[in-house]
Amino acid sequence: MKRLTKKQISNLAFLAVLVLIVFTPLGKQVKIYLNRWIAFSPSVESVEDRAMLSAKDYQWKLQDENGNVVDFSSFKGKVVLINFWATWCPPCIAEMPELQELYNSYKGNVVFLFVSQEEISTIVSFKGKYEYDFPVYQYLTSLPETLDHGSIPTTFLINKNGYVVIEKTGAAAWNSDSVHETIDTLLNN
Predict the structure, then answer these.
(1) Residue-wise pLDDT tens digits, 172-183
(2) Does the residue 1 lie in any domain?
(3) Does residue 101 share a domain with residue 184?
(4) How high is the mean pLDDT of the chain?
(5) Residues 6 or more apart whose Cβ sits within 8 Å of residue 124
(6) Same structural domain for residues 82 and 31?
(7) Shortest CA distance to 97 belongs to which of 65, 122, 127, 136?
(8) Backbone angles phi, psi at 86, to 5 degrees
(9) In terms of domains, do 49 and 139 share one?
């Protein structure tokens, strides 16, 4: 029987670690940690590049975790943060502690919409496990065109005039000084 070379052994070890990361719960935790480690504060869109929500975009209907129907148009004229996420998504999980802290700082002044299409029981269980208390919604009507996103997490920060000031796909450091400064500016204008 032929003995394995050092290179073959290192390749097998690398493959074993890769399988561990991709296919096991330990891998999910590694992905969450890596996403937190590489997350940075999201960038503000330049004024000329900002998308504006249309009247049709405001016709969006949502349902909160208690079954109440919410009309997105009721948030017109307010600063709104919308986060599209899922409990199974490592980058989503990675940014949740920062989003919870941001929510704690601005609840009552900023409208927070954490939007997921998962079962409410799954979401409530996830929130309980991590002691999150931010509001979660599901959409009942089609996603507004301006907020249509290709992946999760995707987060939008919208000013009082309906312009998208921040659009970020992927995990981000949401409780950063720059995000606080941006929100404070939006609240004071």
Answers:
(1) 889 999 999 999
(2) no
(3) yes
(4) 88
(5) 65
(6) no
(7) 127
(8) -150, 155
(9) yes
Residue 134 and residue 75 share a domain: yes
Residues forming beta bridges with residue 163, ordered by sequence position: 52
Give the C-alpha distances (Å, rounded to integers) separating 46 from 51, 110, 163, 181, 188.
Answer: 10, 21, 11, 16, 19
> What pTM was estimated for this model as a whole?
0.81
Kindly report, residue by residue over 80-132, the tens digit of the pLDDT. 999 999 999 988 998 999 999 999 999 999 999 999 999 989 999 999 999 99
For residue 82, give the amino acid letter.
I
Structure tokens at 136: 């979660």
Three-state DSSP string of 137-164: EEECCCCCHHHCCCCCCEEEEECCCCEE
Q: Residue 86: which of 120, 116, 52 has the closest Cα?
A: 116
**Cα first-last separation, the chain:** 76
Residue spans of alpha helices (H) in the chain: 6-23, 25-38, 90-106, 120-130, 177-188
Kindly list the distances between the CA atom of residue 134 and the CA atoms of 16, 33, 120, 177, in Å, as whole numbers in the listed order.
38, 22, 14, 20
Domain hosting 29: range is 6-36
Please say whether the beta carbons of 90 and 151 come within 8 A. no
Sign, CA dihedral 131-149-106-181, equals positive
57's tokens? 């975009």
